[in-house]
Design a protein that fits this description.
128 residues, mainly alpha
Length: 128
């Protein structure tokens, strides 16, 4: 699954502009990667991504992920950044539960392409 396709789907469901959603998704994946997600994926635990998304829980403006999203997207309002991030996490978690292979593919593609040039320019490269 490509980032653009996934961002388009979540954008339609949330009402958040696709380019902003794409950056938020990249920020979430980058955040989870820094929290040790690659070891969960490499360990063959299918529930690793779902578990990591579920464990994010309720967000607040001082949460590290929200601050990362704010920085990556340029959203000035901390409440808006919190709302958008929470919506994206919830939708990603829902998708992870209904289509675990699709979300695994998204994370794998993201992490595999993080060092190279891609359609999204340096959005993905800057996240990791």
């Amino acid at each position: 699954m490509s980032l653009d396709m996934f961002a388009s789907t979540l954008s339609q469901r949330s009402g958040i502009e696709q380019s902003v959603m794409s950056t938020i998704i990249s920020s979430i994946i980058g955040h989870l990667t820094q929290q040790g997600l690659p070891s969960l994926m490499g360990g063959g635990q299918r529930g690793g991504i779902q578990s990591a998304l579920s464990n994010i829980g309720q967000l607040s403006p001082d949460h590290a992920l929200v601050q990362r999203v704010q920085q990556d997207t340029g959203i000035q309002d901390p409440q808006q950044a919190t709302q958008y991030t929470q919506q994206a996490v919830d939708l990603m978690n829902e998708h992870a539960n209904s289509n675990p292979q699709g979300i695994q593919s998204l994370f794998s593609n993201f992490m595999g392409g993080a060092g190279g040039q891609n359609q999204d320019g340096n959005i993905l490269g800057n996240v990791l």
